[in-house]
Amino acid sequence: MPELLLELFSEEIPARMQSRAAQDLRAGVTNALVDKGLVYEGAQAHATPRRLVLSVEGLAAATAERREERKGPRVDAPESAIQGFLKSSGVALSDCRIVEDKKGKFYVAVLLRKGRPTAELLSEILPEIIRSFPWPKSMRWGSSSLRWVRPLQSILCTFDGEAVPFEIDGLRAGNLTFGHRFMAPQPIASRRYKDYSTSLAQARVMVDAAERAQTILAEARTLAFAQGLELVEDEALLAETSGLVEWPVVLMGSFEPSFLSLPPEIITTTLKAHQKCFALRDAKSAALAPRYVLVANLIAADGGEQIIAGNNRVIAARLTDAKFFWDQDRKAPLAARLGLLDQITFHARIGSQGERLRRIEALAGEIAGFIKADADRAREAARLSKADLVTGAVGEFPELQGVMGRYYALAEGTDADVADAIRDHYKPQGPSDRIPQTRIAEAVALADKIDMLLAFWLIDEKPTGSKDPFALRRAALGVIRILLEHERRLPLLRIGRKGLDLYSQGPSEGERKALLADLLSFFADRLKVYLRDQGARHDLIDAVFSLGQEDDLLLIVRRVEALARFLETEDGRNLLAGIRRATNIIRIEEKKDARSYAGQPNSKLLVQAEEKTLATAVAAAEAQARRALEAEDFEAAMRALAKLRSPVDAFFDRVTVNADDPSFRENRLRLLSRIREATLSVADFSRIEG
Amino acid sequence: MPPALNPKQSFQDLIQVLHQYWAGEGCVILQPYDMEMGAGTFHPATTLRALGPKPWRAAYVQPSRRPSDGRYGENPNRLQHFYQYQVILKPSPNDLQELYLASLAAIGIDKDTHDIRFVEDDWESPTLGAWGLGWEVWCDGMEISQFTYFQQVGGIDCFPVPGELTYGLERLAMYVQGVDNVFELNFNGRTGPEKVTYGDVFLQAEQEYSRYNFEYADTEILMRHFADAEKECRALLQRGDQGVRHELALPAYDQCIKASHAFNLLDARGVISVTERQAYILRVRDLAKACCEAWIRTEAGRG
């Protein structure tokens, strides 16, 4: 079966976009082929810094011939109608069959739709796919109106070995490509993927990113091993370096061992983030080695000597800068820098970093009390937590905020737990990041995030839709993860109130209440997302949350769990059905009568045994459930409700709610509404689905 | 004929070779713009000529002043005054990357022994309301140039699209001369007592201007300069406006450059808070946009 080969050859595509673009190309082309009625056996896409490549194997040479029938007018229709039908269908009367149905005899035209050659279809499909390619960011160049990620230089397109002719903005597709930019820039003709990839390999281009990555990894490990070293492996860096070269050449560079006195994070950040190089460590001690691995795109005439020398020079210059900052920064203690934070604006409408830090310190002390952390040390860690933002090293390496603070704290003899908390208070940075591991760090991390949320709620800059520029959802998720994963009890409303008290120009009492309620419901939404990701039922979360009194996330989750277990029992399911029935009746009758049936039933009007029993049971269950809830024993609360099941069932079996006597009817409706009220202390059962 | 140029030993020869090379590609070789600016992009030959339908090819050296990058001459890589070599080709030719690589070969960077890479870098100038896509060009791990296809300047779409190349001349010279300290660059290519280094020419200036930028510049005067330039720019934009045509786009743009430099100095003096900083940038951007809008109503700007 024939094969399609397509290569879009351009100027350098950003490394981070390549793999996605290859997938998009495959999906775009194969979907269009299928839409046209073409089948294929398989498709593979690849990307290098300069090309997107697609091969589709086993592609039909043409679309199949199709027979179509078209129903026309009745045989006794006026001649003009029949002629019109023949003309519009492009057939003669002799090409028509006569078909009879209930309404009479009709002409049916039989049309033969010829198959179309695939190459012809490709000439139509591909320009459109190229024009509308979903690059995250595209551009124009020269005088062309085409958009691509960077200028598109040439297009190779063959089908069954032959060039497929098409043209976009003066760019004509053909059967030519080009080899490596420096090592083999001459044109290469190709007919099929197999000879394409073989001749490109000879022209120093590895088309497959996975092959480039494997080559880098294998050669880097070998180089490291030969020196008794180990590669500090890094998947993201590996993917990035494979996207920066068409022919990876792995070389080892070095720097002065004296730089190893720097914190290792500074060295690895310099190597990785700035130079895209891999760090190496000693195979035995695991300490960083004064060497690194770089990935070049050239088999150099001098064996790479000048490339290594050049890279060594850049890295030495960067490490010299870093060492300068590291030495300067340690000349003054962290605490001496706090004044500078007053001059840094955190947010124009919120105030300075210094003000924010003082709030975090106070709040960390409050929170420490709730989570049994050492309040003095939590406050100390909080006070120093942002001081490294005004150090030279963090100015140069912003990604090392916290990490550097820890080193500076340790260097001046600060307690190790406090120093760790300085580093860890930013955690967790996302759903997969680790949460802080000491209570002191937890207290600071919670205070940092809660103050941030309060601050942005105060100026009404909440996340909307996909917009969350201050990462407030992440902050809330961080709070949730710390509280739940460490099983910490924290009354968020009380803490939020304390937090608001720390703002010099706080809002009015009414505004505070509204703000905190809104923030709590934001937490509820994030908690729902979090629990849903963990596989919990979102309706149960709603059933507990909608009660609206609870601000302790851990208790909410425990109650949800107890409710889930209860609903798995037969008592639970039946009670749910009974409560629903009661709620439905009340809703309908209240609507009909345009009045409420809330309130206690009159015990004197309870005449049937079942309604007397139910009334007693409701009162008892409510009291028991309340006591259980006060003791935070959710299982016991559920057990209390479970006792309602048989009285509720018996009531519905034997008692007519819509009694003839209006006073009985009213009293029974009140009794039903009591069921709902009594169970509402545990959960809003009307929110439960299924 | 002067003696052969040697860009591997002489800073000034490096510049001359680039001039010769780009003159050979049809560029007008301009002299630096006679005003203080933060980058070669601010030169009207780039900012304004990037706009409008007329083809344009130019190359020039632009002294660039970044007051807050001063280090009193103590840092081997950082200067508050340095040279950028700027090339602009509109429309960008299809072989712009090849032209650029050939210019590297002309200054002695051998493509058989050096690892040259185009690494993603989206360029944006908030003060000019300009952006483009391109790369930083790496040579053996060092950034030696910026390579940008302008998409917008002054908030206006560029079409045809100009390609802009910016070479950091000191860095490039350090690389080809193989020195680690900018002040040790050989400036004139002579040896022995006739040799003049970059330090001989600029070290004292770095020290004095660092003092001025960080300690002595009178911030009240600077604020006034900023306000005056902004006011004059607005006035010129208004008075030059002749309906379909604008007659004062260039002088108005000079005032925008002045405001931008006054802002950079104020920033270096540390008297602009983070919040105010954004407001200043927006004020300069508004001027730049208005100047660009005026420019495309001039003879050279609209074609």
Characteristics:
heterodimer, A: 690 residues, alpha+beta, 5-stranded antiparallel sheet, 4-stranded antiparallel sheet, 25 helices, flat, B: 303 residues, 9 helices
What's this entry about, in short?
With 690 residues, chain A is an alpha+beta fold.
Topology, please?
The complex is a heterodimer of chains A (690) and B (303).
Chain A: E1 4-10, H1 15-35, E2 42-48, E3 51-57, E4 66-74, H2 79-89, E5 96-101, E6 104-113, H3 118-131, E7 152-159, E8 162-163, E9 167-168, E10 171-172, E11 176-178, E12 187-189, H4 193-202, H5 209-226, E13 229-231, H6 235-242, E14 249-254, H7 264-274, E15 278-282, E16 288-296, H8 305-329, H9 338-341, E17 345-347, E18 351-352, H10 353-371, H11 375-384, H12 392-396, H13 403-411, H14 416-424, H15 439-458, H16 472-485, H17 492-501, H18 509-533, H19 538-545, H20 553-567, H21 570-593, H22 609-630, H23 634-642, H24 645-654, H25 662-680
Helix pairs in contact in A: 1-3, 5-6, 7-8, 10-11, 10-15, 11-14, 11-15, 13-14, 14-15, 15-16, 16-18, 17-18, 18-19, 19-20, 20-23, 21-24, 21-25, 22-23, 22-24, 22-25
Chain B: H1 11-23, E1 28-30, H2 44-47, E2 56-65, E3 81-90, H3 96-106, E4 116-120, E5 123-125, E6 130-139, E7 142-153, E8 156-157, E9 163-168, H4 169-177, H5 198-216, H6 219-239, E10 241-242, E11 245-246, H7 249-268, H8 274-295, H9 299-302
Parallel strand pairs in B: 1-2
Antiparallel strand pairs in B: 2-3, 3-9, 4-6, 5-6, 6-7, 7-8, 7-9, 10-11
Helix pairs in contact in B: 6-7, 6-8, 7-8
Q: What does this molecule look like?
A:
- The complex is a heterodimer of chains A (690) and B (303).
- With 690 residues, chain A is an alpha+beta fold.
- In chain A, helix 1 packs across helix 3 (118-131), helix 17 crosses helix 18 (509-533) and helix 18 (509-533) packs antiparallel against helix 19.
- Chain A is flat.
- In chain A, 41% of the residues are buried.
- The mean pLDDT of chain A is 92.
- With 303 residues, chain B is of the alpha+beta class.
- In chain B, strand 1, helix 2 (44-47) and strand 2 form a beta-alpha-beta unit.
- Chain B is built from 9 helices and 11 strands.
- The relative contact order of chain B is 0.16.
- Chain B has helices at 11-23, 44-47, 96-106, 169-177, 198-216, 219-239, 249-268, 274-295, 299-302, and strands spanning 28-30, 56-65, 81-90, 116-120, 123-125, 130-139, 142-153, 156-157, 163-168, 241-242, 245-246.
